[in-house]
Amino acid sequence: MGNPLINIQGLRKSFGGQEVLKNINLQVERGQAVALIGPSGSGKSTLLRCINLLTIPDGGRIAVGGQSLAFQGAATRLPSEKQLASFRASAGMVFQHFNLFPHMTALRNVMEGPVTVLRMPKKEAEERARELLRKVGLAERADYYPDKLSGGQKQRVAIARALAMQPAVMLFDEATSALDPELVGEVLNVIKGLARDGMTMILVTHEIGFAREVADQVVFMRDGVVAESGPPQAVIGNPQNEATRAFLARFHRAPGQETSA
Ligand code: ADP
Ligand code: MG
């Protein structure tokens, strides 16, 4: 590996006595899409949250772009608030639930971060927000409030809002899991477009067909460890680990749960 854009080494996290991440190592090259799969409770969300410092790791090292942080439990000396904010800003996060500001239009939701956090002039922020809404197929919905948007539209606004902060990488945590089945495809298509445009991303997904199509690397997590990783044709097409096989078999048995957009 050359110079990965995301480099996670020896990452550890416990909650109470339970070790939820046990020595996680993961490298993501610039422009790569990584699909993170695995059973519920295996630590996928915690891993994403650590990359964005929503959860502070107990040990290990995380580098995103040129910024790197090392963690040593209670002895960890976290950098200043300003440096933390700068580290956080390098990763845009999209959650299962949209968390849009209900009192703001789609356009204002997308403008808000750049104006208040990046101190971008309003006119420029608006131009960029309109461009991003066009990119996610919502140019015509710019002036709608969230309660007038479908779940899929809201999630696409949430993606535009994250992109507006110009992150180096995007993290998607089950971005389509809360959506009605008929709305899943439009959101996956936006994510697919971003991957095609070269956005570096890690996506936690249960859409195995989508992972197989879009991901450069598939990482299967189980009980806080990376049990198997590699190209999709290997991990999904020909899994070597018994746990990966058992996990994937669930999807073959329930074809209704699999959506390939
Ligand atoms: P996944 O996203 O793969 O379903 P999570 O990362 O959400 O898994 O959770 C991994 C484990 O960590 C679970 O057992 C969960 O209950 C536990 N966990 C996650 N967040 C917390 C927290 N804030 N406090 C205590 N336990 C947590
Ligand atoms: Mg999760």
TL;DR?
The chain has 261 residues and is α/β, with parallel strands linked by helices. It contains 9 helices and 10 strands.
Helix and strand layout, with pairings?
Elements: E1 6-15, E2 18-28, E3 33-37, H1 44-51, E4 59-64, E5 67-72, H2 81-89, E6 91-94, H3 106-116, H4 122-135, H5 151-163, E7 169-173, H6 181-196, E8 200-204, H7 208-214, E9 217-222, E10 225-230, H8 232-235, H9 242-253
Parallel strand pairs: 3-8, 3-9, 6-7, 7-8
Antiparallel strand pairs: 1-2, 1-4, 4-5, 9-10
Magnesium ion is lined by residues 44-45, 173.
List keywords for this structure.
binds magnesium ion, 4-stranded antiparallel sheet, binds adenosine-5'-diphosphate, 6-stranded mixed sheet, alpha/beta, 10 strands, 261 residues
Question: Care to describe what's here?
Answer:
The chain is of the alpha/beta class. The protein starts with 5 loop residues before the first strand and ends in an 8-residue tail after the last helix. Helix 3 crosses helix 4, helix 3 (106-116) packs parallel to helix 5 (151-163) and helix 4 crosses helix 5. The protein has helices spanning 44-51, 81-89, 106-116, 122-135, 151-163, 181-196, 208-214, 232-235, 242-253, and strands at residues 6-15, 18-28, 33-37, 59-64, 67-72, 91-94, 169-173, 200-204, 217-222, 225-230. It is built from nine helices and ten strands. Strand 1 and strand 2 (18-28) form a beta hairpin. It is globular and about 50 Å long. The strands form two sheets. A six-stranded mixed sheet has the order 6-7-8-3-9-10, with helices on both faces. It has a four-stranded antiparallel sheet with strand order 2-1-4-5, with helices on one face. The chain is 36% helix and 25% strand. The structure holds adenosine-5'-diphosphate (ADP) and magnesium ion.
